[in-house]
Amino acid sequence: MSLINEDLLRIEVVNGAKKVFQKGLVQAGEGNISFRIPNKDELLITPTFNTYDDFEKADIVHMKFNGKVLSEGRLPSSEYKLHVAVYQLRPKVMAVIHTHSPYATIMSAAIKKIPVIIEEQVIFLGGYIDVSEFASAHTDEFSKNAIQALGTRNATLMANHGVLVCGRSMKHAVKMAELVEKLAWIHYGATLMGGTISISENSCPMFIDDFESKFSTHREFTSRCEE
Question: What is the CATH code of the structural domain delimited by 3-215?
Answer without folding.
Answer: 3.40.225.10
